[in-house]
């Protein structure tokens, strides 16, 4: 009974950490894609008719 509040707090912290890590991982991948020349070339080619 006494371990249950600790478990819920631990699981909540883990979900918050997962959300934080996934959010920043997506942002870092997005910035990496925008910096890479392949991404820029693809965007330029798409912009041309």
UniProtKB/TrEMBL annotation:
Superkingdom in the source lineage: Bacteria
Protein name according to UniProt: Uncharacterized protein
Originating species: Pseudomonas khorasanensis
